[in-house]
Amino acid sequence: MSTALDLSLRDQAAAIAAGEVDAAELLEASLERIEQRNPAINAVVETFPERSREMLAAAPPGPLHGVPVVVKDEWPLPWRAQRFGAAELMRPTAPGESGPYRALRDAGAVVVGVGNMHELGAGSTGNVSVYGPCRNPWDTERCPGGSSSGPASAVAARLVAGAVGADGLGSVRFPAAYCGLTGLKPTFGRSAMEGHHMAPVTDLIVSGPLCADAADCRLLGSVLYGEELAAGDASGLRIGVVRDPVSEDVTEEVREACEGAIEALREETGGEVREIVLPDLIPATLAAILLINAEGLAGTTPQQFNELHPDLSPLARAVLKYRLLLPAPALVQADRLRTLMRRRLAELFEQVDAIAWPTVPAPAPPLDPAMVELPSGAHGADQANVRGAALANLTGIPSISFPVGLSAEGLPLALQLQAAWGRDELLLDAAEAFERASDRRWVDSKPPLAEAEPTEA
Amino acid sequence: MEASDRSDDFIPAGLASLGVEADETELAMIAAVHGVFWPPIQGLLALDLGDVEPERNPDLSQAPR
């Protein structure tokens, strides 16, 4: 028997609004399901049933009235400071009303739990966290993707139908890809960021929705943006495809799935596919990494690096200290390359509406070691993944990842589309067009964990 | 310049100049991080971007002006 918890985010909201589902029962069912399924995936690191019930009792009418959601451990809540998946953040945090919290509260949503995340947001796998590794519901011995690991794993396991993540170098899109979800990285500045500990200094990080499909991302995204992401028409979509060593360095099944999806999208929209040239993607990736690491130095003093929490992972300690050694000429060069890539993209988006390439070059790797085997050899998943995602953060453009297939091992495969600044809605339209073209086969696929005995609601 | 030849000096000396301590294990880990970052940093530094006029206070929510 299907339950309200297994409905889409929009259908949960509609059913509550229509009086067909009791929001209090839905909240209790979500809490119960977290108890049942979460031990296998460690997606939700904290629940606060009384706070959630209070939030529901005070929930105003709104587009998400009574709908339970999970929020990444990157956003403060009035009763809980974010921990950023780490033993320490190197900057003070406190409970408070973050922008995403306010947006959710004002939309009537109920925060039912906090989602796990990769330590310090510094990984694409989700297998390192102060709370222990998060796991992928499609295969609990594999990475869920990061850094928004818990939000993605929670939605994939249908603990909730929507979750809020954050994306600084792909951290919404990687877990969306690994967990078979749709994840939207908004145009910089469009979605709520207040209260994030990096908000005053970052040019790269944004909040973003993780949901099963594009329509749910549109709904949750509209809440986070504070404006309706109106549905439009992706007819005549001009899709740009880059052929370079990075975009070609993917597994055969990723290549086939993404090429098939691009062709299906072209056919569905009556559009066209053009090969485009976008040089310097590898240095642009590094530029984004350097800039976000430099942002991380803001407000710190060298003395703090002598007092790092002993429970930080050895790699986190090393990266934090290495930040101090980044050469200034490289940061200057990174800034110039950002300008160049922004200008190149502005010209490209005169010729095409969206740029398509695989979100990640291989499906979810094992938790340990998180390595992927590509045509160029074996790589750490972080190094392989970031090449496909950092451009959007470096330049500010929006990007979306959506599922386009399953690997031979039954793991999700994903395509990423990127569009010009402010064309977030077009990305949702395009993702919906692909859903139509594929008869919703991939967005309606569920991992084995989500097919387990349902909780009554 | 072979970065790895100098990294044994560069890393502890750089940290020490800032008054930051690191034990042998940390230094080894930082050296590993350096080994990953340094080749692409050299590639970035080698790019000829002299003709690129940087945006002043770029608004990343919009296309460049």
Structure, described:
The complex is a heterodimer of chains A (457) and B (65). Chain A is α/β, with parallel strands linked by helices. Helix content of chain A is 37%, strand content 15%. Chain A is built from 15 helices and 13 strands. The longest helix of chain A is centred in the last third of the chain and has 24 residues, at 328-351. Chain A is globular. With 65 residues, chain B is an all-alpha fold. Chain B contains two helices and no strands. The longest helix of chain B is centred in the middle third of the chain and has 23 residues, at 24-46. The radius of gyration of chain B is 17 Å and the shape is elongated. The termini of chain B are far apart. In chain B, 17% of the residues are buried. Chain A binds chain B through residues 187-190, 203, 280, 282-283, 285-287, 289-290, 302-303, 305-306, 314-315, 317-319, 321-322, 324-325, 327, 329-330, 333-340, 342-343, 345-346, 349, 383, 395-396, 420-422, and chain B through 10-11, 14-15, 18-22, 25-26, 29-30, 32-34, 36-37, 40-41, 43-45, 47, 49, 52-55, 58-64.
Give a nutshell description of this structure.
The complex is a heterodimer of chains A (457) and B (65). Chain A has 457 residues and is α/β, with parallel strands linked by helices.
Instruction: Determine the number of helices of chain A (DSSP H or I, runs of at least 4 residues).
Output: 15
Q: Strands of the largest sheet of chain A, in order across it?
A: 1-3-2-4-6-5-12-13-9-7-8
Radius of gyration of chain A: 20 Å
Q: Report the strand count of chain B.
A: 0
Please state the oligomeric state of the protein chains shown: heterodimer
Roughly what fraction of the amino acids of chain A lie in strands?
A: 15-25%
Low-confidence stretches of chain B: none
User: How large, in whole angstroms, is the Cα Rg of chain B?
Assistant: 17 Å
Look at the structure and give the mean pLDDT of chain A. 96
Derived from helix and strand composition plus strand pairing, the structural class of chain B reads mainly alpha
| Contiguous helical run count of chain B | 2
- Helical content of chain A, roughly? 25-40%
Helix content of chain B: 55-70%
Interface with most residues: A-B, 48 and 36 residues
Distance between the termini of chain A: 10 Å
What composes the largest sheet of chain A?
Answer: 11 strands, mixed
Outline of chain A? globular
Order of helices and strands of chain A: HHEHEHEHEHEEHEHHEHHHEEEHHEEH
* Rough outline of chain B: elongated
